[in-house]
């Protein structure tokens, strides 16, 4: 958890320092060639995009809304649990120290509190059960009395406590009837479990709810759809307002495009890191199980694939935005472009709910459009090795390079064509001539 907090602080401070340095006039030394597009004009355009997003009300209000929803999802279940009423247990007859210990251990096992109420007789216990003053009653340590029969499918706290007590008190009664003293019976029932020695490493236990954080999948889905749509809208706005013509007079199309996707990507990564760090800190502070079972490896994989997914999709959305110049044209493009994201998200959520990854889902972990959702799930399940993870990442990076080259070609040839929507076949036919 600490690495997320440190990462969020470092990213936010780095962005702020970078923006201040961009405002300060200074002599710029020649940049090393290996830095390539991340310096000079690209850095200036990225800083411009970061300033626009950070100053915009949409980002600030949206972030506050997301943090508020997360806070409610974490705090409300904890408050409900803390305000739950304890089980009212009636006791007819004396209660031995062993029985009291078993009642206490059973309630701890179920995860609830209890209040013992001494009742004078069995008839009084029946009356209190019918009046709702008792949840159940223990009669002379030999019998448990409830108002209505407990169904085998009943998973309520009351049913779990009755079943646990019936089993434990029955064992205790059998030990006492066998002639063992109460002290010896207590020693037997409270004995520690034997250590288990494993000769081979077993497969990790899967839990469809906790092994993989559904919260992380939701964050990736929201971030990819939100920020890629921003790129689509931003490119369209610059084209329709003719601002891009002024910008292209000073920088090359590839520099303009790279600066835009880099700036928006940094904002997306900073926001995602802030949200994850906030959820972990708040959950740990209030003792919530909201992210229970989500380890550091799963969270790191989620953030990494958020970056790789954005790097792949941002070029596609930018190229698509350069072919349109009206709002209605953008809407007709947004849904088809988001179909791979929706498909990957649905497949990941379905796999998490079932707790097992199919062969198709494992293949999707190596396909760049769906890998941002599939690979973190496999990491959470423990069904992927480090070299398989690295191989999927390298495939995604290689495909991203190819997509970026194609997208930059489309952007360069379509961004200055106005008056109507540019068809892709026109651009590729022009490139073949």
| Count of extended strands | 4
The shape is elongated
Strand order of the largest sheet: 2-1-3-4
The pLDDT mean sits at: 77
Poorly predicted tracts of residues: 1-5, 25-38, 205-212
Largest β-sheet summary: 4 strands, mixed
Helices, by number, come to 16
Approximately what portion of the residues adopt beta-strand conformation? under 5%
Describe the structure.
A four-stranded mixed sheet has the order 2-1-3-4. The chain has 16 helices and four strands. Residues 1-5, 25-38 and 205-212 have low confidence and may be disordered. The radius of gyration is 31 Å and the shape is elongated. It has two domains: 38-76 and 209-432, no CATH class; 86-186, Periplasmic binding protein-like II (D-Maltodextrin-Binding Protein, domain 2), CATH 3.40.190. The chain is mostly helical.
Brief summary of the model shown:
The protein has 16 helices and four strands. With 433 residues, the chain is mainly alpha-helical. A four-stranded mixed beta sheet has the order 2-1-3-4.
Secondary structure elements and their pairing?
Layout (H helix, E strand, L loop, with lengths): L1 H22 L17 H15 L1 H26 L4 E6 L4 H14 L3 E6 L2 H9 L5 E4 L3 E3 L11 H21 L4 H8 L24 H27 L2 H6 L4 H34 L9 H26 L5 H28 L4 H6 L6 H11 L4 H29 L9 H9 L1
Parallel strand pairs: 1-2, 1-3
Antiparallel strand pairs: 3-4
Helix pairs in contact: 1-2, 1-10, 2-10, 3-10, 4-6, 8-10, 8-11, 8-12, 10-11, 11-12, 11-14, 11-15, 12-14
Describe the structure using short key phrases.
D-Maltodextrin-Binding Protein, domain 2; single chain; mainly alpha; four-stranded mixed beta sheet; 2 domains; 433 residues
